[in-house]
Amino acid sequence: MVELTEREQRIIHAMNIMNNPAYKNAPFDLKTRALQAVLLSAGYKWNEHEMTDLMWAIGAEIKSANEHALKMLDKYKDHFKGLDHP
Asked: How many domains does the chain have?
């Protein structure tokens, strides 16, 4: 199994907080504080600017990826006609 860098591990923790259903409707500040608690309890140093910037970047990337995927699905929707849903 590969070893994750500390930055990759922090990204995973950030994504976990951002995608956690328990925080779905939580304000960004609460998500930031939850991430701070997770990282500090895991022994990582907390850099508020870096981590909030990272959370905004992750959110923007997820939004962009989803928009592009939906556009592609719409473009090729005729190819999916007649396929059964699992």
From this structure: 1
